[in-house]
Write a structure and sequence with these properties.
The chain is mainly β and 82 residues long. It has one domain. It has one helix and four strands, in the order ββββα. Strands 1-2-3-4 form a four-stranded antiparallel β-sheet, with no helix packed on it. The longest helix has 11 residues. It comes from Burkholderia gladioli. InterPro entries: Znf_Ogr/Delta. This is Transcriptional regulator.
């Protein structure tokens, strides 16, 4: 999957040129505008936001937030009669 990113100046599509992992939950991505008349190059920060489906192999060193609706669904399942 490619993420569409548009130049904030001319709104033309931009292409990811490099990506650098800063931590397991944070990455810097360098984009370059595809409009040769603009030529803007910029960095976007990608940060983990929340878990939608818990991992079957969780890393115990990471403290990742769970989406509220996922947490609510889990609590509702605990309330179901057996």
């Amino acid at each position: 999957m490619r993420i569409l990113n548009r130049c904030p100046h001319c709104r033309t599509r931009a292409t990811a040129r490099t990506s650098r992992e800063m931590s397991p939950t944070f990455r810097e991505v360098t984009y370059q505008c595809n409009n040769v008349e603009c030529g803007h190059t910029y960095v976007v920060n990608m940060e983990f936001a929340r878990t939608l489906s818990p991992s079957a192999m969780p890393d115990p060193t990471l403290q990742l937030p769970v989406s509220p609706h996922v947490r609510e669904r889990g609590e509702q399942q605990l309330d179901l009669p057996i």
